[in-house]
Design a protein that fits this description.
Blueprint lengths: L9 E6 L11 H4 L4 H15 L2 E6 L3 H14 L2 E5 L8 H8 L5 E5 L21 E4 L4 H19 L1
Parallel strand pairs: 1-2, 1-3, 3-4, 4-5
Helix pairs in contact: 2-5, 3-4
The structure holds ligand CA2.
Ligand CA2 binds next to loops.
């Protein structure tokens, strides 16, 4: 029997500091779309993949840690663009490594073509996969990847 919407796996999509500024500045790097546009696209991609999404953004490291801990009890997986915290936060790394659910890291830009300080991410070591450089489409790719990982888990 097909799943009802309420039965579909819920994934958290977490966004870190300054991503609320998308579309307002630095369009050359991050494009002209806003985070609200990305949220809408994620809703569509999740629907097609048979998933539900809870999409959030915070400028505060501790709030992101709280949300990662919340994901352990509420979510089947986490897609995260930790933004600058990717390159600095052992707290985000430690919270993610406690999760039993899959984590996919996303960056809009190709962090390896940018400044050296962006080349290391504390998230990557605790992620099942990393997507960067595809702009907002990276979120849709991450949702497709998450759907595949969850199907693999469900069917052994
Ligand atoms: O490429 C990405 O998605 C990043 O995670 C974006 C972060 C950056 O620190 C990472 O190295 C790569 C920055 C997010 C802030 O985005 C802004 C958007 C518009 C104007 C200013 C910042």
């Amino acid at each position: 029997m097909p799943q009802t919407v309420a039965e579909q796996p819920l994934i958290f999509i977490l966004n870190g500091p300054n991503l609320n500024m998308l579309g307002k500045r630095e369009a050359g790097i991050y494009g002209t779309g806003t985070l609200a546009d990305i949220e809408t696209a994620c809703g569509g991609a999740a629907k097609s993949a048979g998933l539900r999404v809870d999409f959030r953004q915070s400028n505060h490291e501790g709030e992101i840690v709280d949300w990662i801990q919340e994901a352990q009890v509420k979510a089947a997986g986490v897609v995260i663009n930790a933004a600058a915290l990717s390159h600095s936060s052992v707290a985000v790394h430690d919270a993610l490594r406690l999760l039993d659910v899959p984590v996919i890291e996303v960056h809009l830009s190709n962090i390896y073509r940018r400044e050296a300080f962006r080349h290391h991410s504390y998230v990557s070591a605790v992620a099942s996969g990393v997507i960067c450089g595809f702009g907002a489409d990276g979120y849709k790719l991450a949702i497709a990847g998450m759907a595949r990982l969850l199907a693999e888990r469900a069917h052994g």
